Every structure is written in C-alpha cells, then in structure tokens.
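User:
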Amino acid sequence: MTPVYIILILLVMGWFAGGTIWNIRKGNAVMRWMQGGLPLLGERATVRWLGTTAVEMVIAKAKPPFQKVTLVIFLEPRDVPWNWGLTRLQGRRDTLIIRTQLSASPHTDFEAMDRATWSGRDILRRIASERWTVTEPSDGGSLPIYHKTAAALDRAKVLLDQARQAGFSVWRLSVRHTEPHFQLHLPLPSASASARDFFQTILAMGEHAGG
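Assistant: Predicted structure:
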C-alpha cells in the first residue's frame, strides 16, 4: 500500500475510535445525570448499549401513571465521519426518546412535531396515509398539532404547555390509544438541569396524557 492509503486508513480508524469514545462518554454522562430523578419513574432499569449510537433503558415495572417506560439516548453516529455528516444534514441530533405504556389507554390520538427535525420528518412520513386535521401554531414557540378530534387538540395544548413551562425543547410529542401511549423526543437535557424536576414533569405529563 502507498503511504497515502496507509494515512487514510489510520485516519478512519482514529476517527472511529475517537467517535466511539465520545459517544460512550456522552451516553454514560446522561445516564449518571438521570440517576438524580429516574427513581421517580421506577426503582429498577435494565440498560443495554445498541451499538455505539444508542443506549436503551427499560423500566419494566414503572410507577403510576406508567406501567412500562423505555428511555433511549439516541446519539449521532460520530464514529463514522461520512454517516455523521449526512445525518447532520438531515437534521439528526443527540436525542432523548421517552416511550411509555400507561396504566390506562388514552382516548385521544395526536402528534405534535417540529417538522424541521429528524424526529418530526420521520413521524410525518409514517402518518401521511392517515386522516388528520392539522392545527398550525399561532406563535413561533408552538408546534403544529396533528389530531382527529377537538379533545385531542385540547389535550395536546395542555401537554405542550407543561413542556414549555418546564423549559423542554420538544421535537415530537405523541399520545396514542395504542402502545406506546405517550412518547416524547427532545434534545439531551443539560447537565446543569435538575433531573428530579425533569422526571417530575414527565410524570405530570403522563398523568394528563392518560386522563
């Protein structure tokens, strides 16, 4: 092999190692932060890494209003430079995904999403074949809401207001009568934020989602 090829191989291997370490450290830091509030949702969680870009935490026996909670720390693919560049152009960022099964199934269905984000575009494609009424935001701080009933629209506004008051930057908020009943996508929380306050808000939103 020529020196150029050797250098390229070393660069790719070095990038892969650096990106992997970066993601592992970031994922572990978020998990440590969560310990300050995660017991509010349930005492025991099983944890597994899904490759180098995601950590899944499952609380199989969650506290009310939840029966089961799955949290996914979804990281950018920093270990592969061309994938990282492409996904960033597509709007993918480090994301915390919260999926839950509620004790009581909601009676309403809605999807609120930031259509400029990866999460928003993904769900928009998947619901394109369904019949939804869309209520566009009346101000710059809100999200478009896809709903099927007036009650669903009202419920969405309540939940989005709760998230806004807690300082959440919501990329997707979903309530469905089928599982997962309540789903929230948002940027990874700041290390300076209170994990207890964060998960207290998740509990309160869950109460309203299933009410």
